[in-house]
User: What shape does this take?
Amino acid sequence: MDNLSNTFVHAFPPAQPASGPAFWLVFSKDGLFLHTADGLGVLHQGDLSSVEALCLRAPLCLGTLGGLPCLAADFDPELDVPEGWSVRGLRSLYGELPEAEYTLAGYAMQMLYWRRTSGFCPVCGHRTEPRDGDWGRLCPECGHIAYPHVTPATLILVSDGPRLLLAHKPGWGNRYSILAGFVESGESLEECVQREAMEETGLALTDLAYAGSQPWPYPHQLMIGFTARYAGGDIKVDGIELDHADWFTVDSLPELPSPVSLSRKMIDEWIASQSITSPAE
Ligand SMILES: [Zn+2]
Assistant: This one.
């Protein structure tokens, strides 16, 4: 499964799968179905008909994996969990599953969430229908079209020479991370970065640079990473969003986020850049 990200092809536009062998991602209200026989696995291989009987509605075809349809489905809550399977919240599997599998399961969860929450028109209340050619939902009564939501949020790695800014939220235990915040309506990503840093820590930033992105399916966020340099101000946290923030060096880092997170990748890149720029080590 290591090459999952290389072999999964998104279905754009979505298509109805042919009957026959397929990969299945099955979710219940409480989480994702796992087979636990030999290690953790989230992808079940089987005929459409064999899994369809367990599901509430027709599966969604997300794309293909190694040429086979990759299907997402809601488990019928009236049924018992079949033998050999267990159910766990996707969030609790963060860091335990290979990254590509986690990403695919997140995509599946996001699209099932979209179908579950888009059945009625938000304008007139009429029942909506799927649209041909994309994931939108059309209201046949008033013509309103809605598309799956993507909510952008920024991640902000702030450095000042050999110092890295890390922050702590209430309830995080010993873990620290870089800054994060949702983009507001009418705001550019750059404005969001500056506003969040000022609101959460009282710091002004300069030299913003894009550093990557990562879908985050809780329920439909897209994390967009930026690096920035400290430009002024004294650290002052609000005590609600953040209860502590401070400067750290590579020799004094606290507990960090899971390696599969974009925030951790950005931190690791900063650490690597420090060893390059500090030949005296
Ligand atoms: Zn309508």
Remarks:
- Residues 99-117 form the longest helix (19 residues).
- The helical segments are 4-7, 48-52, 99-117, 189-201, 262-277.
